[in-house]
Amino acid sequence: MVSDGRRVYTIGERGDLHAPAIAAGRDQVYVVWPRNDGGIFHLFGSVWSKGQWSSQQRVTNEKGNDVWPRMAGDGKGNIALVWQGFRAGRSAILLKLWNDRNWSKEQTVSEGEGNCWMPAVAYGGSQLWLAWDSYATGAYQIYARRWKQPVQRITRGGAFSVRPSIVVTAAGQPVVA
Questions:
Q1: pTM of the predicted model, to two decimals?
Q2: What domains are there in the chain, each with its CATH number?
Q3: What is the CA 174 to chain-centroid distance, rounded?
Q4: Which residues of 125-141 are buried (b: 16+ CB within 10 A; e: fewer)?
Q5: Which of 16, 118, 139, 143 is deepest in the core (most CB within 10 A)?
């Protein structure tokens, strides 16, 4: 369900739905949520455009579960969607980009062999940054990357570091909490 402060809209069908994410494009608002579809969670979405919500569409199509979506818009019509997806026996952080009309192909954000969890995403200074936690070192640590740049490990040591948040300043400087 989505509300604009005046009305509540039902955009998803009844079922096992949870953890919606929302972001604004240029003249659109996009909502994505995980839905149990025959025993596997896939991401579904709906876009608000010209005063109405579109019918829901399936956003992910792979065999593994897709959960914990997060979204960010750049104010120019582009939206980034990140989520935790289970692929090839492990969990990875995945990305799709919305260009005001269509979603890109699924791309892997995280690297390495450890399971990755709880993504975060932000645009700022015309840059896209992503963060997540991973068990790659044997202890949960926070990782981040500017899209298409090398992954950076943010935390060190054996401390339990999970569930990052990220913001990017207008100058393009990421800040991870």
A1: 0.94
A2: 2-176 (2.120.10.30)
A3: 17
A4: eebbbbbbbbbbeeebb
A5: 143
